[in-house]
Amino acid sequence: MVKSSTKKELIVSAARKLFLEAGYGATSMDSIAAEAGVSKRTVYSHFKNKENLFAAIMGDMCDLISGTNPNEPIPANEPEQVLKQLGLHIIESVMEPEALDVFRVVLAESPVFPELGKAFWKAGPDVMKGFLVDYLVELDRRGILQINNPELSAFQFMGMIKWPYHMRLLFGAGKPPTKSEIEESLDLAVSTFVNGLKLKK
Amino acid sequence: MVKSSTKKELIVSAARKLFLEAGYGATSMDSIAAEAGVSKRTVYSHFKNKENLFAAIMGDMCDLISGTNPNEPIPANEPEQVLKQLGLHIIESVMEPEALDVFRVVLAESPVFPELGKAFWKAGPDVMKGFLVDYLVELDRRGILQINNPELSAFQFMGMIKWPYHMRLLFGAGKPPTKSEIEESLDLAVSTFVNGLKLKK
DNA sequence: GTCTATAAATGGATAGAC
DNA sequence: GTCTATCCATTTATAGAC
Distance of alpha carbon A127 from its chain centroid, rounded? Predict the structure, then answer.
């Protein structure tokens, strides 16, 4: 039996939109109720208070982000191809407008909601790191790269790939990169990384 | 003639502390006046409103960050040494507790204060990028590295160096790295970067 | 410039009816 | 669960005296 939308869903949807747009402090329970088209009392019948509502919403967003990470085994192609493909996923997923909002809002509130900051890290970068670590260890085992510290190399690869455009977008200091700019960035990062870690003689 | 502290200085100092600790929304003009030990009316006699006060304070913080960037000519040592030294400066400066607060607060408010976000980028990462670009171009000219896109390589180097520990600290997902962890990270990043971009045959 | 006092509006949260 | 109406604390900003 299909219901159009429960009140709770309306509230969650409205709260998500407003929290992501304006952050925790600048979003009022009044505005959430208005956006959802319900009374404020109804909001409080579903969520104990503003903090709980925020934590619930943003916790869900972290899980959602986590779900976008790769979960298939890595194909046995050329390392450059695999890394470029992973890199493309990394940069595209963090540049999603909604992902930018989540990043900004979670970071802003992480001193007040420390569990949220940790949840974001664990669901996002940490998952991708684990995935990369497995692959780098395999490349080391196959004698293709020399990976002495897989975790560190994984993080450095991620930083090299995502930091430049991600940060510029977050601070409003540049336009989104074009496809060919992303392409160029990925090619350079992957070749630098692979050549830099190639097994020496 | 040395004055202890003007009221304006007291206000600025109090506002800076509170804004950096709690962000824009969670800091009230009342609390700023109280922290400064002046009346609220005095705050408003020096700053038109809360937005102006915030923009002034945070704009100053951006300039302050800019002032910590290197401005001396780069010594003609081994590239690895120079890059490691620059990398050490990068990572140490972004991990300063006050720099972490500035980063978080500016980013949080950059949708509302877009000029602030751009100012931060221009005073911080952009300055360091320019410095790195000059050096990478020189290394290319000297036939040491092959740098086809200096700006891109500079940003990727910065991302590789700073992203891992910077992000974990911001999200509260890890302890500050020890000296030896920083050392290891810098060594790996620099060697990956230099080997990866060495002039081929 | 600086203070005390207060205006005017908004915030989170609840009472009580249905 | 849901609504209308409201309480009470807090917020930004200003009035007016000194």
Answer: 10
pTM score above 0.85: yes
What nucleotide is nearest B53 when CA is compared to C1'? Answer: D12
Centre a 10 Å sphere on the Cβ of residue A143 and count the other Cβ atoms it contains.
8
∠ Cα A4 A10 A13 (to 5°): 120
Is any atom of nucleic acid chain C found less than 7 Å from the CB of residue B35? no
Beta bridge mates, A198: A145
Q: Is residue A172 part of a domain?
A: yes
C1' of D13 to CA of B53 (Å): 14
Q: How many CB atoms lie within 10 A of CB B99?
A: 18
To probe the interface with A, which of B100, B107, B166 has the most A CB atoms within 10 Å? Answer: B107
In a domain, A124, yes or no: yes
A179: Cα within 13 Å, side-chain hemisphere? 0
Contact check, Cβ <8 Å, B148/A24: no
* Other beta carbons less than 10 A from residue B5's beta carbon: 12
Give the closest nucleotide to A29 (alpha carbon vs C1').
C12
CA distance B3 to chain A (A): 36
Q: What is the pLDDT of residue B75?
A: 85
Which residues constitute the domain of residue B156? 60-196
Is residue A75 domain-shared with residue A36, that is, in the same domain? no
List bases in chain D with any atom under 7 Å of a protein Cβ: 1-6, 10-16
- Picking from B110, B156, B163, the nearest residue to A192 by CB comes out as B156
Inter-axis angle of helices A179-196 and A79-95, nearest 10: 130
* Identity of residue B78: E
One pLDDT digit (tens) per residue for chain A, 201 residues: 566 689 999 999 999 999 999 999 999 999 999 999 999 999 999 999 999 999 999 999 999 988 888 888 888 889 999 999 999 999 999 999 999 999 999 999 999 999 999 999 999 999 999 999 999 999 999 999 999 999 999 999 999 999 999 999 999 999 999 999 999 999 999 999 999 999 875
What is the domain count for chain B? Answer: 2
